[in-house]
Amino acid sequence: MLRLTLHQMRSSAGRLVAAGIAIMLGTAFVAASLLATATIERTTYNSVSSAYADADLIVAAEGGGLTDADLTAIADAEGVSAVHTMAMVGGQASGANRSEYVTLGAAAPDPTLESAEVAEGQAPTAPGQIAVTDALADRVQVGIGDELAVTVDYWLSDPDSPDGDTGESRTETLQVVGLLDEPDAFLFNRASALVHTDDLTELLALSWGGDPPHYELSLALTDGADLEQVRNAVAGSVSADVQVRTVEEQAARTTAEMAGSDQIMTVLLLAFATVALAVAALVITNTFQVLIAQRTRTLALLRCVGASKSQVRRSVLLEAAILGTLASVAGIALGSALVAAGLAVLSTLELEVPIEAGLTLTPAVIIAPLVTGLVVTILAALVPARMATRVAPLAALHPTEGRASASAGRARAVLTGLLLAGGFGLLALAVVVARSAPSDSSDTTLILGLAIGLLGGIVSLVGLLVGSVFVVPRLIRLVGRLVGRGIAGKIAIANSVRNPRRTASTASALLIGVALVTMMSTAAMSARETLTSELDALFPVDLSVAAGDSLSDAQISAVESADGVSETVLLSSRDVDVTNAGGMPTSLTVAAVDQGDLAQVVREPAAAQPEPGTLVVPTDMAAWQDISDGDQLTLTPYGSDGETSLEVTARVTSLDGMVALLDPDTFAELGEAAPASMLWARLADGTDERDTVRTVQSTLTDLSETVDGAAPPQISGAAVERAAYAQVVDTLLAIVVGLLGVSVVIALVGVANTLSLSVIERRRESAMLRALGLTKGQLRGMLAVEGVLIAGAGALIGAVAGLLYGWAGSTVMLSSLAEVPLMVPWRDLALVGVVALVAGLLASVLPARSAVRTSPVAALGVE
Questions:
Q1: CA dist 435 to 420, 431, 440, 812, Å?
Q2: CA–CA separation, 633 vs 650, rounded Å?
Q3: Would you put residue 572 in left (φ > 0), alpha (ψ -120 to 50) or beta?
Q4: Fewest CB within a 10 Å sphere: which of 402, 572, 647, 843?
Q5: Residue 242 bridge partners (DSSP)
Q6: Both ends of the chain: CA-CA distance in Å?
Q7: C-beta of residue 732 within 8 angstroms of C-beta of residue 524
Q8: What is the pLDDT of residue 261?
Q9: Could you tell me if 486 and 506 are in contact, meaning their C-beta atoms sit under 8 angstroms apart?
Q10: How far is CA 277 from CA 28, 104, 519, 747, in A?
Q11: How far is the C-alpha of 127 from the C-alpha of 116, rounded, in Å?
Q12: What is the CA 582 to chain-centroid distance, rounded?
């Protein structure tokens, strides 16, 4: 039977190509997913381990931090030559005219512990020295030998202060002795500037108000020291919750902790691979069913000469196993080639995270796709194999021309109704659960709604697949009345529904892909609209520019004339003392419009429109100052004798920032006019928010050089926050649609395969039509209409199902945030429809070419 099977495969090679392509794409998807995950893990591991340089041991305090006394005890342990703390402190670095926030770390006492690379000069070796990254040096305009002022803010206890403490700052003037290369792995960048250990210890003590904690140390051992003995000695000198690990162990642990997000991506990719393989399984099943139908005479003759049912079944399954193995190997090669090409391109780009061009081939990358493709192919061939055993020996005497299949039974109709009713009922229940849950409900409600919705989606999708044998033929007949007016069209309609099960199976493959693409497009559009409205409420101000004293005319003009800025409003601000109804004093900053229309600038006017006698308090400020909506507050100008006071009512809104708003008339009652120190701007829709904010920041930094050394104004851009969220949604949508597009491609291969096999099966019928006067063009048109009808039916059903799934999913996921609008992605639907119809048309080209190349006389010949 092996030789016979191989002979049949060689004779049917053209028919097996489509099924092979389908399984190849699915296994390529699996291989690429696993390779991408391995690359991410390796990149993460290299990035983590690079932060420890050539250290021998890592001391990690997973409970409370280590003290300076612990550092001394560790340094005194036998075999330890150097100890490097990886603690950091934030501060303001100021050059002659520019300043920037920096993260300060300690220069390693031993070169083997230093992860930073010195581009020029040297690392600090004595107190009073600092080394900064070359990019930071360029921004604050300092070089080797220049002085850099570093300011660290801290708090001191002050019984006379309303808050019980008072803010202080300390400035140290340090000499720049070195420039550092910008680190590649930004996720593990320990510091943007290095100072001497003594300077860092002093700054840490100020920042922490005492003995600062150290959560991670790197150790260098003396030459010849036994690593395990030193590890035990260090572990014995500290508390039990402190772990002593090698660099490999620590990097592996950190990588595993961070790989949670990577595993989520892996699961997502493999989920799409599963969809692709499911669609491929439909194509494979359909292919083998038609092959069995074409081999009816051959199988019957085998039965006549003594072949048993089990031998016939094994022959079909062996053919499927060979096909699955060959296609899976090709899929692994294709997936590896795609990932290798992607890595080669990424390695040439200037990315913040270095990506190696080499592939990380593991046994799982080879075995998993191979086994998956083989198992899916064999499972898909089980039903056709069963069909092959039912071929009676007398069938060898029958002609091989295809016949219409029997209609679906009543049991299938009942099952379809139950599945559809139950599935969509569960989806409706999930929506009701999500919408009825309060906004502050626990995650349990969300998980329950998701579980119900997921179950409903699976059940209803199975119902659609089972019931497609009823819907697809009727839909083709209905649509065919509009397009099939000619002879060729009428024949195409009849041929399309001649074998309802095969047609439904082909359309179902496309149905799955289109449904998932539509679902993600619908959900993403609804999510984007929901998030946009929520972000407009949370971040109503696109761009805020605030100066300590006042904004100059040049600074105001620079913001107003920046590309992308559409509207601006100028505000005056002042500090006030506040006393609530309970007599608790505090202080805050209040502002009022000095020039411009606030309603034209903020994206949520209701959140930032103060009424007379009302103080609009941002949410974060209200939480920080313990202010509730409706509180009666007394405002007194900061530093005044208390003679001027103002009674206002607090209104807590979703406004961001730490500045409360008053209307201009109420603000004027606090005393003499305050300078205009704040400027809010709204960016034009469609502009690149990041570029606009960076341009404004760069322009204002350049202007600060001409303002007597004054620090540039503080810039905050809520537009950047909103753009980041929108970018995440758009990126995920693009990835998802791209991945699901693979399943659509596989489904379209199935359409072409069905048409090709249909041409072979109706060879004598087509010849008879040609003999009766049907032209080659009409024959091509007949197959084109057939392909378009099958693809269109699958696309239409998939689009409707995808809309329902997308609406239900977005409602369940986002109802806890806000009211979810039910959006229809008309552009995406039109694109999917056009692609499906054009692809169905293109799928008929090769089958039509085969049909018209066979002469009527040859086709009518009896074998």
A1: 23, 6, 12, 7
A2: 7
A3: beta
A4: 647
A5: 61
A6: 24
A7: yes
A8: 45
A9: no
A10: 10, 51, 19, 11
A11: 19
A12: 48
pLDDT tens per residue across span 404-460? 455 557 888 888 889 899 989 988 888 888 777 665 555 567 677 778 887 888 888
Q: What share of the chain is helix, strand, coil (3-state, %, to 5)?
A: 60, 15, 25
Dig out the tokens for 510 from the structure: 């496309």
823 φ/ψ angles, rounded to the nearest 5 degrees? -95, 150
Q: Are strands 147-157 and 660-661 parallel, antiparallel or unpaired?
A: unpaired
| Mean pLDDT, all residues of the chain | 76
Tokens of 645: 């006071």
Q: Which whole-number Å values give the CA distances from 668 to 93, 589, 590, 612, 645, in the listed order?
A: 37, 15, 12, 11, 12
Element (H, E) at 682: strand 676-683
- Give 647 or 15, the one with higher predicted confidence: 647
Phi, psi of 675 (to 5 degrees): -70, 155
> In what helix (H) or strand (E) does residue 279 lie, and over which residues does it extend?
helix 247-294
With beta carbons less than 8 A apart as the criterion, state whether 750 and 281 touch: no
* Identity of residue 350: E
Give the span between the Cα atoms of 574 and 670, in whole angstroms.
9
Contact 266, 35 (CB under 8 A): no
Nearest to 453 by CA among 426, 420, 422: 426
What does the block give as tokens for 673?
A: 């006019």
Give the sign of the dihedral formed by CA 461, CA 463, CA 465, CA 469: negative
Q: Which of 145, 155, 171 is nearest to 93 (CA)?
A: 171
654 vs 488, 689, 718, CA distance in Å? 64, 21, 13
Q: What is the bridge-based pairing of β-strands 129-133 and 165-180? A: parallel
* Whole-number Å distance between alpha carbons of 219 and 238: 14
- Report the chain's C-alpha Rg in angstroms: 36
Q: How far apart are alpha carbons 430 and 375 in whole angstroms?
A: 34
DSSP string, 582-629: T--EEEEEEEEEEES-HHHH-SSGGGS-PPTTEEEEEHHHHHHHT--T
660: nearest Cα among 577, 728, 731, 778? 577
The whole-angstrom separation of Cα 454 and Cα 811 is: 13
Strand-by-strand arrangement of the 242-246 sheet: 80-85, 216-221, 57-61, 242-246
Distance CA 420, CA 422 (A): 5
Q: Which of 280, 255, 380, 272 is nearest to 330 (CA)?
A: 280
User: Measured on CA atoms in the order 560, 563, 565, 567, is the torsion positive or negative?
Assistant: positive
* 522 three-state secondary structure: helix
* Host H or E run for residue 283: helix 247-294
β-sheet bridge partners, residue 646: 635
* Token pair recorded at residue 213: 């904690």
Element (H, E) at 48: helix 13-50
What is the rounded distance in angstroms from the CA atom of residue 481 to the CA atom of residue 493?
9
**φ, ψ for residue 349, nearest 5 deg:** -90, 155
The helix (run of H) or strand (run of E) holding residue 614 is strand 614-618
Burial state string for 675-684 with b = 16 or more CB within 10 A and e = fewer than 16: ebbbbbbbbe
| Stated pTM of the model | 0.58
Exposed/middle/buried for residue 858 (C-beta within 10 Å: 0-12, 13-18, 19+): exposed
Report the distance separating Cα 340 and Cα 336, nearest Å.
6
Tokens 């079944």, residue located: 313
Grouping H, G, I as helix, E, B as strand and the rest as coil, residue 218 is strand
Burial grade of 801 (CB within 10 A; 0-12, 13-18, 19 or more):
buried
Q: Which helix (H) or strand (E) holds 716?
A: strand 714-716
Q: Which one, of 131, 127, 96, 102, lies nearest residue 116 by Cα?
A: 131
Of 525, 569, 842, 850, the residue nearest 682 (C-alpha): 569
751 or 667: which carries more pLDDT confidence? Answer: 667
**Span 478-532, pLDDT tens digits:** 877 766 567 777 777 777 777 777 777 777 767 877 887 788 778 777 777 776 7
